């Protein structure tokens, strides 16, 4: 999670524009689901905020929030925008309904954070190498790209669990990982089943495990 205020201070000092990618945060953080910038109370200091209508809002599509002049410039000069088809009316309506709901309801965000904490705690108790971080994304260190892909394939084929392998260049070489993203709908039974499957694969495939109850640093 970036130190947004400190970055804004630098931008102000040197006359730079700020662009914040909030696609993993909108709907999930802040009192109205505005993202990390809202949570850190710095939304007014940013020039462009990039968000998504997928992930936390559960639909599809994306957006930027900026001044009228910046939005007009992008409409006029960004070829990726000019040749993009607009959202279907049903998708736009669904996105509006989702945003309006999450502006006034915090129960989903609270449940989501509780599920994340529970998953992290159970993974650590099982001795799996959780990479500590403050976000809702729970990474497990594998450290090998081929093994990382092999493990995610096995999770899907043998246990019906889809997990995304994260390899270079998304992360540095040697820090390849599994990215777990629990949702508010995942039950204790779901989490237990995931942890059991991961322990079995770790024992079969040989990546290092932390002592039970400890996290990888």
For this entry, give a set of tags.
217 residues, mainly alpha, 3-stranded mixed β-sheet
What does this structure look like?
- This protein has 217 residues and is mainly α.
- The longest helix has 19 residues.
User: Separation of termini?
Assistant: 17 Å
Radius of gyration: 20 Å
Number of strands: 6
Helix content: 40-55%
**DSSP strand content:** 5-15%
**What best-fitting shape do the alpha-carbon axes yield?**
globular
- Uncertain residue segments: 210-217
Could you give the order of the helices and strands?
A: HEHEEHHHHEHEEH
Question: Main sheet?
Answer: 3 strands, mixed
Q: Within the largest sheet, what's the order of strands? A: 1-2-3
Give me the secondary-structure category: mainly alpha
Number of DSSP helical runs? 8
Mean pLDDT: 92
Topology:
Elements (H helix, E strand, L loop, with lengths): L3 H11 L4 E3 L14 H4 L8 E5 L9 E4 L2 H10 L1 H4 L6 H16 L2 H19 L12 E4 L3 H15 L4 E3 L10 E4 L7 H18 L12
Parallel strand pairs: 1-2
Antiparallel strand pairs: 2-3, 4-6, 5-6
Helix pairs in contact: 6-8, 7-8
Short précis:
This protein has helices at 4-14, 36-39, 68-77, 79-82, 89-104, 107-125, 145-159, 188-205, and strands at residues 19-21, 48-52, 62-65, 138-141, 164-166, 177-180. With 217 residues, the chain is mainly alpha-helical.
């Amino acid at each position: 999670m970036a130190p947004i205020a400190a970055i804004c201070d630098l931008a102000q000092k040197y006359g730079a524009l700020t662009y914040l990618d909030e696609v993993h945060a909108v709907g999930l953080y802040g009192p109205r689901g505005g993202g990390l910038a809202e949570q850190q109370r710095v939304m007014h200091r940013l020039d462009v905020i990039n968000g998504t209508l997928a992930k936390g809002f559960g639909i599809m599509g994306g957006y930027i929030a900026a001044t009228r002049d910046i939005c007009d410039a992008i409409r006029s000069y960004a070829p990726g925008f000019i040749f993009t088809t607009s959202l279907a009316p049903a998708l736009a309506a669904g996105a509006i309904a989702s945003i309006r709901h999450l502006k006034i309801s915090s129960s989903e965000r609270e449940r989501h954070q509780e599920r994340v904490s529970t998953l992290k705690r159970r993974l650590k108790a099982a001795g799996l190498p959780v990479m500590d971080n403050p976000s809702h994304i729970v990474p497990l260190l594998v450290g090998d790209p081929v093994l990382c892909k092999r493990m995610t394939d096995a999770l899907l084929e043998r246990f019906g669990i889809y997990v995304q392998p994260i390899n270079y260049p998304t992360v540095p070489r040697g820090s390849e990982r599994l990215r777990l993203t629990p949702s508010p709908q995942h039950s204790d039974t779901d989490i237990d089943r995931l942890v059991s499957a991961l322990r079995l694969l770790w024992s079969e495939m040989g990546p290092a495990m932390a002592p039970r109850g400890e996290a990888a640093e």
